[in-house]
Amino acid sequence: MSYIDDPYTQKANLAYIKDSMEAPMLTREEEEALAKAWVENRDERAMHKIVNAHRRLVVSMANKFKNYGLPIGDLIQEGNIGLMQAVERFDIEKEVRFSTYATWWIRSTIQDYVLRNWSIVRTGTTAAQKSLFFNLRRLKAQIDSEDNFNDSLSEDDVNYIATELGVDVKDVEHMNGRMSGGDQSLNSQINDDTREEWQNFLADEGPNPEEVVTQMKDSKSRSAWLNNAMKMLTDREKQIIRDRHLRYQTVTLETLGDQLGISKERVRQIEKRAMEKLKINLETTVENPKDYYSLI
After folding, report:
1. CATH number assigned to the domain comprising residue 291
2. DSSP-based three-state secondary structure for 189
3. Last residue of a domain, which of 89, 117, 145?
4. Rounded CA separation 31/244 (Å)
């Protein structure tokens, strides 16, 4: 997936980048004074000066992620969000330069944006996958192997990368496959010589018409047997069976005991007796009892 900005957007991005890089830098003393004014007095003018002086950090970080095919303007915008979060959370008592603290927040927000938008398929949901996503290309470039020319990895290459990043070999193989192939529409044609689309060759994993009819018939048979079998139970047994086995949310023994005015152990005994009655009825009235055992 790759994005190309229109000329007007490119011009605006260049103007913003130029303005950011020309913004005056702050001395440590100026930075501390402005940070204190913002943290203690919520001085917005001080906050704007801090942000303006550190926009160059955002531009620099965004450029490190431009090869992932996303608009540089969007990367900068996300980085600015990280910069604002850093301003809001900065602790002046830690005696750490704001630029050092802000760098982590800027990188984090840009990385999250890349992971969310690099592919329509969600990528990098675990710490290991994130590490692989942002380091795999660098490590592949370091490996002196002809296999890298076609994006494949040898077994030794995979083991090396897994060891370097402390991840499973399967994670390396999966991520390499994901990053080697881009997203493709199911409506796209297979080739120029045919109008067939990729979606026409997807297998339908749902039941076929014969299976649907069979399942409907089995379901009706089970319902008919269960309705007839329930008639032989007492009202209290029916209530317990319905609440314990035929409802979406199972009622607990203790709750039924409170409703019926008996102990939960007594409810368990009645339930067991009712299930035995149903089983006896099943074995004497149904041709293939094993097909119905899941109900009891």
Report:
1. 1.10.10.10
2. strand
3. 117
4. 66
How far apart are the C-alpha atoms of 239 and 221, rounded to whole Å? 22
SS3 120: coil
Unique residue bearing structure tokens 């996303």: 70
- Any residues with CB less than 8 A from the CB of 51 and at least 6 apart, and which? 80, 83, 84, 87
Question: CB of 72 within 8 A of CB of 63?
Answer: yes
Cβ-based neighbour number of residue 108 at 10 Å:
16
- What lies within 8 Å, CB to CB, of 63 at 6+ separation is 72
Residue 267 pLDDT grade (very low, low, confident, very high; cuts 50, 70, 90): very high
| pLDDT tens digits along 169-204 | 888 877 777 666 555 555 666 666 667 776 666 666
- Closest to 227 in 3D by CA, of 294, 289, 281: 281
273 shares its domain with 291:
yes
Instruction: Say whether both 23 and 98 belong to one domain.
Output: yes
Category of 123 on φ-ψ map: left (φ > 0), alpha (ψ -120 to 50) or beta: beta
